[in-house]
Write a structure and sequence with these properties.
Elements: H1 5-33, H2 37-40, H3 55-63, H4 66-97, H5 101-113, H6 118-132, H7 138-163, H8 166-174, H9 179-190, H10 192-208, H11 211-216, H12 225-229, H13 241-273
Helix pairs in contact: 1-13, 3-13, 4-7, 4-10, 5-7, 7-10, 7-13, 8-9, 10-13
Length: 277
């Protein structure tokens, strides 16, 4: 059925309005980051700064340890992404290829676990990390991020595994390859796009995460970038708007760049995972 012209115009109008809605916060953040103090306090704000300045960026780096916080975020995000992918890949293979009740139960648990709020998880995770001596440490935060990212990584990779023709694995078995050899030599190369997309998605999630880092990290030099950004807000709730916008803009850039690069792969993986073979 062909869509009528008025319907198409309505669809494109709604899409344009949605894109404007999504882009507005980032564009306003970018504009604020380059505005001098007198423009930030103006009663008639403008989109484009009349007198753009880099003082907000200099002040942001002078007031807070942004480089150390960015390094902590990078370590936590990379560690969580690598470990989650290494664990999820063989698990996804088993879940996708073994059509047993246990595999179905695991898949159902993965879906249900995504509905759990952070508040329900923080207490058991805090106690577990305390027993392991990992409170207030970046490795402990990496462990938490792995636990949080693993269900979605498993679900996403299982979709890619189902897209790999089983006949290829059967041919490898006929040639004498075992399960592990088949996974490493046959299936894994075909899963490379899905593994990359899953790892980068886990990286973005960990890079932007705030709640777990706020609760588990107390020492300033160990805090991640999202937590350090809150330090630009004073005790009375008054924000140092210029430096805050500059720091937030810099913190947002890595995840935006990564997502722009892999958004097609992420969408493909999610759609693949939603289709039964």
């Amino acid at each position: 059925m062909r869509t009528s012209r008025p319907a198409r115009i309505g669809q494109y109008t709604a899409l344009l309005a949605y894109l404007v809605f999504l882009a507005f916060p980032f564009l306003w953040l970018l504009s604020t980051a380059f505005k001098p103090p007198r423009e930030l306090g103006s009663l008639h704000p403008t989109w484009i700064p009349k007198d753009p300045t880099l003082d907000n960026f200099r002040q942001a780096f002078d007031e807070q340890p942004l480089l150390q916080a960015a390094l902590n975020s990078l370590i936590a995000a990379l560690g969580a992404a690598l470990i989650a992918v290494l664990i999820a890949t063989p698990m996804a293979y088993v879940v996708a290829r073994r059509r047993t009740r246990l595999a179905k139960a695991v898949t159902g648990w993965v879906v249900v676990s995504q509905a759990f709020p952070f508040v329900l998880l923080i207490i058991p995770l805090f106690l577990a990390l305390k027993n392991l001596g990992l409170i207030n440490s970046v490795p402990g935060l990496v462990l938490v991020y792995v636990v949080w990212a693993l269900p979605f990584a498993l679900w996403m990779l299982a979709g890619y595994v189902r897209a790999v023709p089983p006949e290829l694995e059967e041919a490898a078995a006929v040639d004498g390859a075992g399960r592990l050899r088949t996974l490493v030599s046959v299936t894994a190369p075909l899963l490379a796009p899905g593994i990359v997309a899953t790892g980068l998605f886990a990286f973005i999630t960990a890079w932007n995460e705030f709640f777990f880092a706020l609760v588990l990290l107390k020492t300033p030099e160990k805090q991640t970038l999202p937590v350090v950004l809150t330090h630009f807000i004073g005790a009375e709730g008054v924000a140092d708007l210029g430096p805050l916008a500059a720091a937030a803009f810099l913190a947002t850039l890595p995840s935006l760049v990564v997502f722009a690069v892999i958004q097609r792969r992420i969408t493909g993986g999610m759609l693949t995972g939603a289709v039964k073979s």
